[in-house]
Structure formats: structure tokens, C-alpha cells
Amino acid sequence: MYRRRLCLGAAAIALTLPLAGCMTVHGERENIPSVGEGEAARVLANFAAVNNRIGRTYDAKGVTAVESGALGTTDEAGLRAKHTNNPAGNPGYRPLVFSDSRYLIPRQVGWPKYFVADTATNRATGARWLLVFRRSAAGLPWKASYVASIATADLPEFARDKAGHPIALGIAGTDLLVQPGKLSAEYAAYLGGSGASDVFAEGPSTSQLRSDRNAHAKTANSVTQYVDQAASGGDLTPVALRTADGGALVFFASHHQSRATFRTGYKLAMDADTKALMTGTPRTSVTLTRLGDEAATVPAAGGGKVVFLSRVVGLVSAKGE
Q1: With 0-12 CB in 10 A as exposed, 13-18 as middle and 19+ as buried, what is 36?
Q2: Which of 37, 71, 273, 307 has the fewest CB atoms within 10 Å, i.e. the most exposed one?
């Protein structure tokens, strides 16, 4: 898979103070690092171990132990399709290996909390993966909800607080060109043709994608309609870290649907994984539902345009009529 890529947490961190007993710092009230670096490293190691197991067996249910959100939804569907077509699994699977791993651990108040693992892999030459791990409460497992594969040369520099921690931004009330909580909706509107073109920089995920859609919307054999919608809430909530230039790197998701209607008598051809996810009988039309897992730099207001650094789109369902 393109992205194939516990953890013992506690509601409090106990600090032993000389001659003063113990004081409990509550993560739901105090502004503290979201996780210790040692625990973050164990989370990443466990993620690799589980993904390597399910990569060999195509265990769609197993992925939910370490993934959620956009990453978990698309990987679950992909594994389900692979297992349907290859019930014996993948004996030729090449294990995922992380190296030179670093951790972006912001200070946060309350739940959910998140951190980002920035790591080299044996899957992407000249690029690093940024994996967003999130959990909703103390004691629950950390799960990766977003992944971005970003060229090393394009990785932004992150702003730091006085203690050296990266700075987490909320989904609203920021000084950014687009509020992180509105980015998915802005992008969906842009792809649908009603969004302002001055928000997004040109590129494969923006102007080129719109152009490609227009070119394929009507052919001699089919007519295709597109519907794009914002994704938000729960583990699809965006994550934003302040960058050194005053902007932010934002991880977010988006829903995309296409419905292709074919001329009478046209023989439909589709790949095995799409067939495995298909419900209904594709006689004259096929509706495909996809989920985008995206990372983009968003400048401060008046400072430029939104630039996509990574976009992975996974098929989550197919329906024939």
C-alpha cells in the first residue's frame, strides 16, 4: 500500500519534588507536552509492527488498533479489497522500516491530544513521512489519523516555544489565510468551481485536478459528475502546527464522489480492488466514493496561498447501478 505504512498513557504526570511530596499535573487542565518522547517512539514502533503484520495478512480489522481518521478509513477499505482478492495474504510483502525518527510534540491543554512523528522510511526516497498520532483521552491507544509523504526539500521549518516545543494551533481564531477548520470546506468549494482561485496555489492537487476533471467529464462513452464535501469532526478534525514563517502546516481530510454514467452497450472495465468494494450491479453507472488525506502549508493572512505538500486519495466504496 502506498502508505503502509501503546501505549501506556496516563491522565497525569507525577513530578516528585524534594521535601514536598508529589504534585499531579492534569493533562485536561494544564498546558503540558502531549506525550513523552520515549512513549512517542514506542507508539511509532508499535505502529510499524502492526502494519507489517497486516501488510502480510491483509487484516482489515487489525488496522483499527493503530489507525483512525482519514488514514484508517482508507487503509481499512484497501485491506478489505486486497483480502477479498488475495485471501492468503501477501507473502512477498516488504516490511516497513522507519529510521532517523524525530517527534513534534506540542504543549496542549485538554483532549484530544496529538503529536507528529517525522521519519524516514524505506518506502519513499528523498521524502519523509509525517504521521499524526492522536488520542481522545488518557489510557486510550494512540492512533495515526493522518500521514503525509513530503519531499525533504519541501519540509517546512516549525516555530518553537521557549521550551523548544512546536506550537499547536486551534481550528479557528487564528491569523491564517484560511482557518484550519475551514480548509476542507474551502477546498471542496474550490474543486466544485465555486471557491476562490486566489486561495490555492496552482499544482497537481488544485488547478491540474480541476483541469483533468473538466477534460474527462464528458467523453464518447461516459458522462461523469463530481461532488466534493468537507470532512470534519472526530478523528477527521484538522491538525495544525505553526511554521517559522508565521503560517502553519495543516493536516486535513476531504470527501470526494464521482458518478460515471455510460452509454448503452458500453462494456465497463474496472480493476480488481474496485470490484471487491462494489455493491449493486454496474449496468449503466458507477459511483465511487473516496477520502482524501492531505497536508498543506497555509500562510498568514495576506502572505500568499495555500500550497499542497501531500495528497493521498483512497477509494472507500463503490456502487453500481
Answers
A1: middle
A2: 37
Neighbours of 180 (CB within 10 A): 24
Q: How many CB atoms lie within 10 A of CB 146?
A: 30
Which of 8-12, 217-221, 293-297 has the weakest average pLDDT? 8-12
Q: What is the pTM of this model?
A: 0.90
Among 155, 190, 213, identify where a domain stops: 155
**What residue type is 290 in one-letter code?**
R
Q: Examine residue 163 and state whether it is found in any structural domain, yes or no.
A: no
In a domain, 132, yes or no: yes
Q: Is 194 contained in some domain?
A: yes
Read off the pLDDT of residues 247-265 as tens digits, 9 standing for 90 and up. 999 999 999 999 999 999 8
Determine the Cα–Cα distance for residues 257 and 117; give it in Å rounded to an integer: 31
- Mean pLDDT, rounded, of the chain: 90
Are 84 and 202 in the same domain?
Answer: no
Confidence of residue 15 (pLDDT cuts 50, 70, 90): very low
Question: Which residues span the domain enclosing 98?
Answer: 1-155
